[in-house]
Amino acid sequence: MIEILKYSFMQNALLSCFFTVIICAVAGTLAVVNRNVFITGGVAHASYGGIGFALWAGFSPLFGALGVAALAGLLLGLIRQKYADKADTLVSVLWAAGMATGILLTDLTPGYSADYLSYLFGSILLVSLREIVILGIFAAALLLLAVRYYRILLIVSADQEYAVTLGIPVKRLNLALLVLLCISVVLLMRVAGLVMVMALLSIPAAIAETRTKQLSRMMLLSGLTASAAVFGGLLLATYLDLTPGAVIVAFLAVMYLVNTIANR
């Protein structure tokens, strides 16, 4: 088992896991405490339209998904601020339209490409060096932003009306957070795939939320939970020759179940 660690693909996978833990700790916690999980889930599925367009146009699916996710997150954030009662419906429409567009464009793409399958179901063992660099830069930026603006994030997450009285640009901050969350989801697709990525992002934070109400501790506990699931799931999947993304999410599901029973 230890011998496999000398291979470059396994080293890349472990490095991806490290950056994934950081993103889950910061972005996942902010998504859960600000109740943005459903919106980011809709945007994640809508971003498949960007993947299909990228395959059809002949450029990187990652950049296609990132572009669509950022635009969709910004659009939904603006709509939610003006028409909060229609947000759920619009998310569902965007969810379905994005998936349908992605599938149709993939069908129209000549030849066979395995890229779209890796985004649907995850392929952490096939992560490229370029994707690791992008993942690492984003994780570092996210962590720095969380540390630099921690007090502002804490106030906005706790009481947005009070944040407004302090002069904090709450609406613009919410839009920025939503875009960052949507980008996080796209980058994590390589780990768990589009189908299960929301579990990877939300379950560690949901477990942490039951244990502490302090935002910094929640991020730390979420990171530890994600670390146990991601690294443990990857090693177990490699040993048993199973799909890593599915094993990681299964780890998280069991941890959530155990935590729920323990709380009761």
Keywords for this structure?
ABC transporter involved in vitamin B12 uptake, BtuC, mainly alpha, 264 residues, single chain, 13 helices
Detailed description of the structure:
Helices cover 81% and strands 0% of the residues. The chain has 264 residues and is mainly α. The chain has a single domain, classed as Orthogonal Bundle (ABC transporter involved in vitamin B12 uptake, BtuC), CATH 1.10.3470.10. Helix 3 runs antiparallel to helix 4. The chain is globular, with a radius of gyration of 18 Å. The mean pLDDT is 85.
Number of discrete helical segments: 13
Give the total of domains: 1
Order of helices and strands: HHHHHHHHHHHHH
Question: Distance between termini?
Answer: 38 Å
Proportion of helical residues: over 70%
Give me a quick take on this structure.
The protein has 264 residues and is mostly helical. It has helices at 8-33, 37-46, 48-57, 61-82, 87-108, 115-121, 129-148, 150-158, 160-165, 170-192, 197-209, 215-240, 244-263.
List the helices and strands and how they pair.
Blueprint: H1 8-33, H2 37-46, H3 48-57, H4 61-82, H5 87-108, H6 115-121, H7 129-148, H8 150-158, H9 160-165, H10 170-192, H11 197-209, H12 215-240, H13 244-263
